[in-house]
Amino acid sequence: MKYRVGIVGCGNIFPMHAAPVRDLDCCELVAVCDSKPELAQQRAREFNCRAYTDYRQMIEAEQLEVIHICTPHFEHAPMAIYAAEHGVHILCEKPMSIDYADAVEMVKTARQNGVTLGVIFQNRYNPGSVLIKSALDSGMLGKVFSGKLSVTWNRSDDYYQKSDWKGTWDKEGGGVIIDQAIHTLDLMRWFVGGELEYVDASIANRAHTTIEVEDSAEGVIKFKNGILTAFFAINYYTTDAPIELELHCQKGTATLVGEKATISFNDGRTLIADKNPNEVFHYGEQKQYWGVSHVKQIENFYGTLQKNTQPDITGEEALETQKMICAIYDSGKLGKRILF
Ligand SMILES: NC(=O)c1ccc[n+]([C@@H]2O[C@H](COP(=O)([O-])OP(=O)(O)OC[C@H]3O[C@@H](n4cnc5c(N)ncnc54)[C@H](O)[C@@H]3O)[C@@H](O)[C@H]2O)c1
């Protein structure tokens, strides 16, 4: 039996979902949907399936079993909730939602209807991330004392002007934090583990002229296990510099620069993991290194669906990251510490 799969949202991230679904034996991409009819038709021709402009119609007419949500942030929650109510499993792009309460509703509705909800945080599958996580979980690094991360990327006014939803509070729900730094903040939370104790942050638009949302943010996230982590994020740098994340631990230091992890133990040993040059993402004529981790997460999603178990990154798991992201905004807007 093959899962009948549909994808809503045929923009930038679409190929990272469509190509893996096409290539997996257990799935059939039966339809795609975009509110722009020409785009939906173009993608449908490319993937030899049917085109829709209304995702509700696609769900019903195609009797979908799984939907991938690749639309602007403000649409994730209503689409996921509708799909869950119609018995459809969901794989949703990051972030889950704009508001934390909506993300809670997504998880609740999926649970009530017995469907699986997965959320994309593909960077957890990068070899460097896997090395750090396993070194922490196995105890090789001992206790984590503290952590810090920085994301300094480029999303220019031009970039924002090409989009009809980015740069707005109501549709994107924020700027550098909810869209770009979310990946590295999620990695930090995954590495450090545990629940949040408080978030104390500031956000500002310091260098853009055409957007409402923040292009800079900094602050501290304290976890209930006592670990303090600091973050710094801007998207007015002139290039996408490699992200940097560092964990100071009892038995050494773990650093992630871009995708490359280096673990330097206090006794002089070093462990390194980076992208595997043999792992490439195939899309049309292109071969590229970006996209491989999407394939891995999508394989995990369908593999666990077949076994009737839960994927690595469930709605529940992603909810804590959503809580952290929303708390950064609340703290920044209110100018006070958010305690949990
Ligand atoms: N995981 C990653 O690394 C990564 C990278 C890029 C984007 N994303 C995420 O993917 C999502 C989409 O981002 P994007 O860059 O592809 O955006 P995009 O603007 O390129 O594409 C979104 C598409 O959704 C369509 N759409 C909007 N409302 C719709 C509706 N109601 N019904 C049907 N179609 C609708 C738009 O017409 C557009 O074609 C976002 O959540 C974004 O954060 C994730």
Automatic annotation (TrEMBL):
Task: Write out the transmembrane intervals.
Answer: none
> What InterPro entries does the record point to?
Gfo/Idh/MocA-like_OxRdtase_N (IPR000683), Gfo/Idh/MocA_Oxidoreductase (IPR052515), GFO_IDH_MocA-like_dom (IPR055170), NAD(P)-bd_dom_sf (IPR036291)
The record's annotation in Pfam families points to: GFO_IDH_MocA, GFO_IDH_MocA_C3
What residue stretches are annotated with the GFO/IDH/MocA-like oxidoreductase domain? 132-254
Using the record's annotation, list all stretches that form the Gfo/Idh/MocA-like oxidoreductase N-terminal domain. Answer: 4-120
Task: Note the superkingdom of the native organism.
Answer: Bacteria
A Gene Ontology molecular-function term?
nucleotide binding
Protein name in UniProt: Predicted dehydrogenase
Q: What is the lineage of its organism?
A: Bacteria, Bacillati, Bacillota, Clostridia, Eubacteriales
